[in-house]
Amino acid sequence: MVNSDLANKFISLIEESIDTGDLKLPNNATMNDLCTLFKEQLKLENTLVENLHGNFIVVGDLHGNFQDLYHIITKYGLPSSSVKYLFLGDYVDRGEKSLEVYIYLMCLKILYPKFITLIRGNHEYTITCKEYGFLDECISRLGVMRGPAVFKMINDTFPYLPLAAILPNKIFCVHGGISSNVNTLDDIRNINRFEIDTWGKSVIATDLTWGDPRYLKNGVMTESSDRGLGERYSLAKAKRFLYDNELTSIIRAHEVCEGGWEKSLVDCKGNILCMTVFSAANYCGLENHASVLAVDNTGGISIDVFDSNGDEIRCNDTFEFGPIDLNLLIPPEEEIYLLL
């Protein structure tokens, strides 16, 4: 069976399950073949995916919400030269259809490898998704014998996922964010991600997938996170990181947003240094909206917001990021701090 036939077979089974509610996966050997093909495609990408060009749909956390993933693909179309996709991680856990979400994305990567980029979130670690629902889903849906085997096959693909990407207009994209350990792009480029199967294997990988932007006082650049992993990074830290690496802004996921997205770090001139996008509507019953960001080839951004029924929510906000000016003072939430 050629690669495209195998991927299309899985996609057909997933699409059939939309109506029946019953996902009928092929045997474990065939499932393993799919995971192997997926890993072979990911091995061709660097840990930091660069030189991306074209128009992108940026998708935040999905957390097993296949309905929202399918809504996004149906609206914008399959990955192609005219519409490319960047997914920011957290594909599994907490939702009811993590299997569909992750297998569907594996298939899209196999079929359209140049037009879709998948990076790793903090839930793409065995230690996380064993605790927060994915293992339980595999067992409850596939049985106590087969469930753990499929769970392991999928988990074995996680270390192959890149950790960050750079979109047109030098927009840095990551699941969580930066930290005191992440100062240059080489810090990311030099990670041997294929060996990272748990948090302790790489502090930088942990920080990239667990970090959160926060306004911090007294010129603090970073501080420990109350999550227990990763760091909180301030506007000052974001500005320094972006300036030093000739980047314009950070787009990340990792946190639910009531409106589907939010401006996470903004300087005193209103320049957005960090945005959060979250793409799972009604996450854990919170009745939040979901969103995706449409980033064009010049770096211009528009926002598509939708609810749990897939109904569009009007959003007229558009953005374009510019060069970072280190001389701008930071907002009153932080004390004045001169970086130069």
UniProtKB/TrEMBL annotation:
CC annotations in GO: cytoplasm; nucleus
InterPro entries linked: Calcineurin-like_PHP, Metallo-depent_PP-like, PP1_catalytic_subunit, Ser/Thr-sp_prot-phosphatase
Protein EC: 3.1.3.16
A Pfam family hit: Metallophos
Gene3D superfamilies in the cross-refs: 3.60.21.10
Cofactor: Mn(2+)
Assigned keywords, A-Z: Hydrolase, Manganese, Metal-binding, Protein phosphatase
Recorded coiled-coil stretches: none
UniProt keyword annotation of Hydrolase present: yes
MF annotations from Gene Ontology: metal ion binding; protein serine/threonine phosphatase activity
Residue ranges occupied by any Serine/threonine specific protein phosphatases domain in the UniProt entry: 119-124
Top-level taxon of origin: Eukaryota
SMART domains: PP2Ac (SM00156)
Catalytic activity as recorded in UniProt: O-phospho-L-threonyl-[protein] + H2O = L-threonyl-[protein] + phosphate; O-phospho-L-seryl-[protein] + H2O = L-seryl-[protein] + phosphate
Family: Belongs to the PPP phosphatase family.
UniProt name for this protein: Serine/threonine-protein phosphatase
Source organism of this protein record: Trichomonas vaginalis (strain ATCC PRA-98 / G3)
